[in-house]
Structure to design on (1275 residues):
């Protein structure tokens, strides 16, 4: 087993809800409600779940775009959330992020060369005359051409912009990259290009990824390990093969069976979940999934299931397993 | 064989933009039979939505305009109808649901108000009758507490519920055809499963044809009887669903099937189609896929391939099959 | 990768190597706008008229009572005033004042409005609360009466006529920055939500870079539009104040002050050449600026075409 | 809702205090006061001036004067107008309704014309009507109100003699009943026309922009897809949404009904509050001006709260807490 690069310990992120005459905090949206996991060097851990499950908030809190509410995040043993602003800034290049929306993730008024190169310059990692070469190198590594350096974001398609976003992160020579739904707004044919690019780069550079996605088929392709989130908690976590071949949590099973498969002859037993995802401001008591779980028992309504190892690094939080 | 409910014949819908003419739908022909589910599949900008909106005559003009062709619906050419006649078809004989359930319902009108509108208009129901029918519809699309929903506003409902309401509204007048334009793209996968299930059930119950527009081949495999593949404003391949998945012919279709990761089918690398969809402005007269195709020949860059059917009725527009046509 | 990805240009028409910035795009849209061009032509004319025009006038701006109150003639195209001065020349000279005050007042209001709005939006917290409270206070007070009272106080303070113009600029700037501040603040708040601003944090950019390279250029279009339209309303406010005799006063006339000739019943009824030309001049200038401002808004934001 | 109103009222207290301090200071710091202005002549001795100042309470230190003034204001006592020699309240009451009459007429015509032009321009965007309306509107809102007022006065009253040159009733007449109403109406035509023409431009642009924005929305497409008549689509589905932001605008215009139009009232010699206040400024009648300014400030603050409340009632998406 290789060494952990990221350790997340009981991380919580609550967003206050304000109300009343004086706009006091009257409640919290528990976007992330106590998650723990580690990411080992060189692997891809995927966080998968539906909208509102808190997967993006986890990603943003890990690299301290948001301040945590509770818990700890260690990057190579350094507690990220205890760093001073200047120390954090120095560490920034090591932890990067690729964003979901290729249209809003690039400043429309900045040339590509500046967008990709500015951080390198700002951190003093390169001299001004070397900069251009480094930018071109990064662009080419991401499948773009050197003459793109003088262009503006609106002159590129979604897939190309996503490549620019990747180049911008890559040029800083990071060890860890949070990929926040990097392909979900792209068409299938472009999606495949970007996934391959990400996997190639990981191999060449020994990168460690946290891959956030709602698309299970992409997750299955790209991950080493997978964690399934529901309403702010991880309900199941295991190696990719284990999770997809032997899903234990009813939610994971339902998710997997809900994905349409491009084979008209395949007839599957489908678990169709009833109802909607409850609001994270007012989650159900006990197991948060019990309101939609086809197998829910009385205990599920009262007791929060423990997140435990059921063997071989397969973790699950369910009373019925 | 059931008769055609819709037949697109050489439909051309262009958009006149500042940069030039976008031939969003460029000589498209296909048909949908009664009670059949036809999936129109393709990537963004391929013209699949514009085809559907042309059928409803809801293309915004300017910049859009239907410049040629015919759309025969139930024996009449839609494009020749008066506005009043067209309105009697919309929402009555053809229902339509859209991609964004969050913005497709009017935020300041109650669900009940919006549901009752087409019933009172097309079926000449009284308010009371329409109210009862609307409640029945809400139950039919699987939403509990129908009375309460009637007086709710759209923002009080979740995305999945709103899409159910949209469906209820679209089927309220028992249309012969339901158009669903990416109905589940904005929804979570467990909700998507609910909606697809609902659409399938309603289609059977109401015996209506379904024109389902999607980019997801998984949904196509699950829902379609017949598939139409579009690329850059053209239909490049069409076939019955089993035939298409078993024996995809066009390199683009094949590429799409290979490029999408599939659950339970692990592979080392994904197949990729290189490059990207061409800029739709001022395209020439050649195969639009030629610059991304791994089998490109000289002829592909010079002439537009004709759309030809083989003996199984599997149609494809590709020069690779030139040899087969001569037989 | 199996094969190198062919790098297709998204816009094939764009053959040149250097990219086209949004500024260039906006410029292209701007010069295509007929109203914008008309506005620019009128505006250029007014500026030349006011600043160069007087050098071509055969008259001197000195009283000559022998020629008082003459109607328009070949010699005096717009007639003469009650002191026998050429109205056309006065109109040009007044234009200098009106245009200068309009522009300077706008610069002051932009300076205050943009900096307060930016600070408020960027830092948030209690700074934001305080600035927005002050904005609320100023917004709640009736603008024109306060403006007029300040004009009156200027008279009480016995400010020399030559200096009044600076005070007028300043007063106009101070009472009209609220709109711009709110606009800039809301723009910055929405920019902060954009992923590229999150990216600047992830990249660890310095605050100064975030502001100068990322926020500022994206707020600038809004500021330019607000500034242009601000000049128009400053000109109108100044003319109202001067019309009441509480703004810029003789010997330096402004268009508004010239219009106050209409306060005299005889001049008003019998000598329209004294007060109609400055009114038309104000209207033309403001119209031209509004055309340009509106075209700029369209050019910067083609989606919001109105 | 009640909670929201209470909160907003509480929030407006500091605003009101701040505004009152600023308004008070503006006058207090001005050198010329009522006494110097009104009684300064060679015969007046400095002693007598001081006596007068003491009489009017102008000799006390500033904070004391402010507190006394503010305390009086809170009790609704605005003091006596120096110019009219009677309570400010009754002066305001004497003239404000004349302004209100003018204001209501203007508001009626402004909204009527603007809505017709705005909606029609939006529905027929780029038509000949739209182009011409746009041009005229631009010209109207580029006009200073006093210039338009003067031109209309010169042309229609002085030259053509269609309408009276000023005032509210014909001098020396003592019409009653219908004749009185007609007389007032005749006097109202020009001032109402002036202010309506000036303000109709901006509002109709706003109407048009709102309509255009709403017509682009998905739910309008949905309405059309239901086969609704274009009339229903525009007036039921589009207009209701387009009107929402206009509710705010409308409510915020309410204080101006009471504020009077200083310059226009002066030009047409309309006996409204605006004209009187302008006069008060010229003679430095501070109590009257202070009373008036505070009244309008309070009305503006209340209108702001009312605007939010009405918006909350009209838009089901907004929940007032």
């Amino acid at each position: 087993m290789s060494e952990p690069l990221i350790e997340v310990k009981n991380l919580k992120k609550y967003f206050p809800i304000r109300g009343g005459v004086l706009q006091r905090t009257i409640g919290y949206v528990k976007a992330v409600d106590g998650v723990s996991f580690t990411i080992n060097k060189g692997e891809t851990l995927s966080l998968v779940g539906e909208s509102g499950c808190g997967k993006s908030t986890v990603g943003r809190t890990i690299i301290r775009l948001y301040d945590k509410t509770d818990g700890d995040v260690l990057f190579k043993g350094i507690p990220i959330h205890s760093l001073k602003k200047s120390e954090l800034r120095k560490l920034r290049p090591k932890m990067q992020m690729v964003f979901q929306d290729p249209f809003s993730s690039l400043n429309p008024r900045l040339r590509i060369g500046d967008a990709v190169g500015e951080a390198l310059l700002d951190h003093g990692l390169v001299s001004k005359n070397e900069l251009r070469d480094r930018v071109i190198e990064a662009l080419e590594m991401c499948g773009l051409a050197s003459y793109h350096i003088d262009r503006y974001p609106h002159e590129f398609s979604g897939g190309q912009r996503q490549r620019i976003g990747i180049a911008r992160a890559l040029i800083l020579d990071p060890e860890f990259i949070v990929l926040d739904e990097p392909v979900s707004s792209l068409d299938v044919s472009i999606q495949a290009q970007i996934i391959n690019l990400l996997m190639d780069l990981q191999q060449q550079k020994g990168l460690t990824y946290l891959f956030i996605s709602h698309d299970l088929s992409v997750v299955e392709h790209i991950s080493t390990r997978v964690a399934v989130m529901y309403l702010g908690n991880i309900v199941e976590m295991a190696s990719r093969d284990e999770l997809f071949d032997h899903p234990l949590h009813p939610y994971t099973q339902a998710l997997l069976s809900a994905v349409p498969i491009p084979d008209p002859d395949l007839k599957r037993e489908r678990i169709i979940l009833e109802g909607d995802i409850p609001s994270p401001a007012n989650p159900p008591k006990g197991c948060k999934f019990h309101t939609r779980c086809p197998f829910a028992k009385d205990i599920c309504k009262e007791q929060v299931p423990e997140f435990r190892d059921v063997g071989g690094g397969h973790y699950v939080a369910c009373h019925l397993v | 064989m059931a008769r055609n409910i819709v037949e697109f014949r050489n439909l051309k819908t262009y958009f006149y933009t500042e940069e030039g003419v976008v031939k969003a739908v460029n000589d498209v022909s296909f048909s949908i039979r009664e009670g059949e589910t036809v999936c129109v599949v393709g990537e963004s900008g391929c013209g699949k939505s514009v085809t559907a909106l042309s059928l409803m005559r809801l293309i915004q003009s300017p910049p859009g305009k239907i410049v040629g062709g015919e759309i025969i619906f139930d024996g009449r050419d839609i494009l020749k109808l008066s506005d009043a006649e067209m309105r009697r078809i919309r929402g009555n004989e053809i229902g339509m649901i859209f991609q964004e359930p969050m913005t497709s319902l009017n935020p300041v009108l109650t669900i009940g108000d919006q549901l009752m509108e087409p019933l009172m208009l097309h079926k000449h129901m009284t308010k009371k009758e329409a109210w009862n029918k609307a409640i029945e519809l809400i139950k039919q699309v699987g939403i509990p507490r129908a009375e309460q929903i009637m007086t709710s506003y759209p923002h009080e409902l979740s995305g999945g519920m709103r899409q159910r309401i949209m469906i209820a509204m679209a089927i309220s007048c028992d249309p012969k055809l339901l158009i669903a334009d990416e109905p589940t793209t904005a929804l979570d996968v467990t909700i998507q499963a609910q909606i697809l299930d609902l659409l399938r059930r309603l289609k059977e119950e109401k015996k209506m044809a379904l024109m389902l527009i999607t980019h997801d081949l998984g949904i196509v495999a699950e829902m379609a009887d017949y598939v139409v593949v579009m690329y850059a404003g053209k239909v490049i391949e069409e076939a019955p669903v089993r035939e298409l998945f078993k024996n995809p012919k066009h390199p683009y279709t094949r590429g799409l099937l290979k490029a999408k990761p599939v659950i339970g089918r692990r592979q080392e690398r994904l197949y990729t189609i290189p490059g990207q969809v061409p800029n739709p402005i001022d395209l020439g007269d050649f195969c639009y896929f030629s610059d991304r195709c791994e089998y490109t020949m000289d002829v592909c860059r010079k002439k537009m391939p004709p759309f030809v059917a083989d003996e199984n009725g599997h149609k494809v527009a590709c020069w690779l099959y030139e040899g087969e046509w001569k037989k | 990768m199996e094969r190198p990805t062919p790098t297709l240009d998204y816009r094939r028409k764009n053959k040149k190597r250097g990219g086209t910035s949004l500024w260039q795009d906006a410029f292209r849209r701007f010069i295509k706008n007929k109203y914008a061009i008309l506005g620019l032509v009128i505006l250029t004319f007014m500026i030349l008229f006011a600043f160069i025009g007087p050098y071509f006038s055969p008259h001197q701006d000195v009283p000559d009572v022998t020629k008082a109150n003459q109607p328009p003639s070949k010699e005096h195209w717009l007639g003469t005033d009650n002191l026998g001065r050429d109205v056309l020349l006065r109109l040009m000279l007044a234009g200098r004042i009106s245009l200068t005050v309009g522009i300077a007042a706008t610069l002051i209001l932009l300076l205050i409005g943009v900096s307060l709005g930016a600070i408020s939006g960027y830092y948030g917290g209690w700074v934001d609360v305080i600035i927005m409270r002050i904005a609320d206070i100023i917004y709640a007070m009736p603008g024109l009466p306060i403006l007029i009272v300040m004009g009156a106080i200027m008279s009480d303070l016995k400010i020399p006529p030559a200096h009044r113009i600076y005070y007028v600029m300043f007063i106009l700037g101070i009472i009209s920055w609220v709109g711009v501040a709110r606009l800039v603040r809301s723009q910055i708040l929405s920019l902060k939500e954009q992923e590229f601003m999150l990216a600047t944090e992830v990249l660890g950019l310095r605050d100064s870079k975030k502001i100068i390279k990322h926020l500022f250029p994206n707020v600038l279009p809004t500021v330019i539009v607000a500034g242009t339209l601000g000049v128009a309303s400053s000109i109108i406010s100044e003319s109202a104040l001067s019309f009441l005799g509480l703004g810029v006063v003789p010997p330096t006339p402004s268009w508004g002050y010239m219009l106050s000739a209409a306060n005299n019943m005889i001049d008003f009824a019998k000598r329209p050449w004294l007060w109609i030309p400055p009114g038309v001049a104000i209207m033309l200038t403001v119209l031209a600026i509004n055309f340009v401002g509106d075209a700029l808004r369209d050019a910067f934001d083609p989606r919001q075409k109105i | 809702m009640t909670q929201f109103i209470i909160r907003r009222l509480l929030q407006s207290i500091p605003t009101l205090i701040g505004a009152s301090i600023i308004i008070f200071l503006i006058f207090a710091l001005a050198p010329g006061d009522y006494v110097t202005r009104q009684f300064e002549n060679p015969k007046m001795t400095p002693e007598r001036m001081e006596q007068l100042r003491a009489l009017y309470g102008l000799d006390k230190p500033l904070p004391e004067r402010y507190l006394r003034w503010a305390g009086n204001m809170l009790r609704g006592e605005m003091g006596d107008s120096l110019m009219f020699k009677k309570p400010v309240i009754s002066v305001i009451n004497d003239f404000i309704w004349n302004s209100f009459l003018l204001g209501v007429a203007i508001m009626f015509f402004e909204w009527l014309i603007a809505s017709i032009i705005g909606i029609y321009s939006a529905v027929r965007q780029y038509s000949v009507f739209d182009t011409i309306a746009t041009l005229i509107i631009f010209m109207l809102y580029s006009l200073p109100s006093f210039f338009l007022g003067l031109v209309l006065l010169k042309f229609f009253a002085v030259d053509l003699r269609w309408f009276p040159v000023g005032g509210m009733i014909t001098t020396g007449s003592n019409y009653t009943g219908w004749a009185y109403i007609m007389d007032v109406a005749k006097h109202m035509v020009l001032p109402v026309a002036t202010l309506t023409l000036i303000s109709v431009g901006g509002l109709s642009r706003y109407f048009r922009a709102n309509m255009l924005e709403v017509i682009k929305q998905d739910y309008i497409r949905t309405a059309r897809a239901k086969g609704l008549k274009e009339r229903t689509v525009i007036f039921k589905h589009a207009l209701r949404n387009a009107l929402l932001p206009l509710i705010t605008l409308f409510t915020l215009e309410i204080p101006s009904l009471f504020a009077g139009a200083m310059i226009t009232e002066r030009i047409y010699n309309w006996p409204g509050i605006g004209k009187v206040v302008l006069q008060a400024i010229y003679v430095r009648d501070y109590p009257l001006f202070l009373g008036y300014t505070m009244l309008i400030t309070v009305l503006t603050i209340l209108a702001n709260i009312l605007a939010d409340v009405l918006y909350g009632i009209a838009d089901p998406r907004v929940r007032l807490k």
